Amino acid sequence: MDYVKLGRTGLKVSVAGLGCGGPSRLGMRDGASEEQCAGIIRRAFDLGVNFLDTAEVYGTEGVVGRALKGMPRDKVVISTKKKFPLDDPKDPEGETRCSIEQSLRLMGTDYIDVYHVHGVEPSEYDFAVKNVLPVLVKLRDEGKIRFIAVSEAFVDDMTHRMLARGVPENHWDVIMVGFNILNQSAARAVFPKTLAKDVGTLVMFAERKAFSNPKRLREVCAELKQKKLIDYDGDDPLAFAVGPGKASSFVDAAYRFCRYQPGAHVILTGTGSAEHLKQNIESINKPPLPDDVAGRLREMFKRVDSVTGN
Ligand SMILES: NC(=O)c1ccc[n+]([C@@H]2O[C@H](COP(=O)([O-])OP(=O)(O)OC[C@H]3O[C@@H](n4cnc5c(N)ncnc54)[C@H](OP(=O)(O)O)[C@@H]3O)[C@@H](O)[C@H]2O)c1
Fold first, then answer.
1. Most exposed of 92, 195, 208, 305 (fewest Cβ within 10 Å)?
2. Which positions ≥6 away from 99 have C-beta within 8 Å?
3. Mutation test of ligand 1: which of 156, 252, 269 has the most ligand atoms closer than 8 Å to its C-beta?
4. pLDDT tens string 146-202
5. What is the pTM of this model?
C-alpha cells in the first residue's frame, strides 16, 4: 500500500480508503450481518488501508466500532459526517453535539479525525458556513474532532459549484469530491484550488455502475455522443483502454485514472465483497495507465460535466 500526506492535516493516509457508504454500505444493502461487514473493514486493514469513511446516515458507524475493537486508535484515520436538513435549522449546535456524541459512542472512540458537513449543495453552503462551521470549530478546540471537512452533493452538483466557491474561502482542511474518467470536471474546477490551499482530498465516484457494467458504460457514452459531447467509432467506446500493457478491466482503468490525478490524495472504494476489495486496492496501487491511454481518456471526456458514472 502506498501512503500519502492528506494535505495540510499532515495525516499519513493510505491511497486507498475504505468507503463504508456508497451503494453497498459494506454489504449491508444485500443483508450482510454487522460481523460480516466488520470483516470487510478488518480485511481492508490487513491489506494496508488506514483510512475509513463513514457517516451518520450510512448506518455503518457501529460496524466501524466493532472492527476497531482492540486496535490501537492511532493506527486508523476515521472520517465521518452529518447531513443538515435545511428545512430545520433550529439548533445546529445541539444537533451537531448530539450527533457527534452518538458517532463517538458507536465507533468506540473519543475523537474523530476528519468530520464533514455532509453532501452540501450550493444553495446550502451559506447555511453550513454560518451555522455549522462555528460549532465544528468549537468541537475541534474541545478535542472531539481534529480536522474540519465538507463533502459535495455530486449528484446534484456535477460541476462542483459548492467546492469551487468553498475551497478558496479556506475554511476546510479536507474536502470530498466526485471525480472519474467520465466526469473529470474536478480536474479544472477543484483540484487546482485544493493544491493552492494544501487541502486534503478524498475522491468519491471513482468507480460506479458505468465501469462495472459494460452495458451501462455503452449507454452513458451513447448519450454523450448524441449530445455531441464526446466522439468515437464503433460500439465499444473505451475498448482502447483495456488490454495487455494497459488496464486489466474498466474498473481497473477507473481506479488507476483517479489515483494519478494531481491533487487527489485518497481514492475511496466501497464494497461488500472481499474479492472486489482486494482487486480495487491492487488497482489503486498499480502504476499509472500508459500515457497514450490516459491522454486519450482526458481528451475524449474533456467537455463532459453532466454525468456521475451511475
Ligand atoms: N456526498 C458524500 O459525502 C458521499 C457520496 C457518495 C459516497 N461517499 C463516500 O465515498 C465512498 C465511495 O463511494 P463511491 O460513490 O465511489 O462508490 P463505492 O462505495 O465505491 O461503490 C462502488 C460500487 O461498485 C461496486 N464495485 C466495487 N468494486 C467492484 C469491482 N471490482 N467489480 C465490480 N463492481 C464493483 C460495489 O458493489 P459490490 O459490493 O458488489 O462490490 C459498489 O456498489 C462511499 O462508500 C462513501 O463512504 C460520500
1. 195
2. 56, 82
3. 269
4. 999 999 999 999 999 999 999 999 999 999 999 999 999 999 999 999 999 999 999
5. 0.97
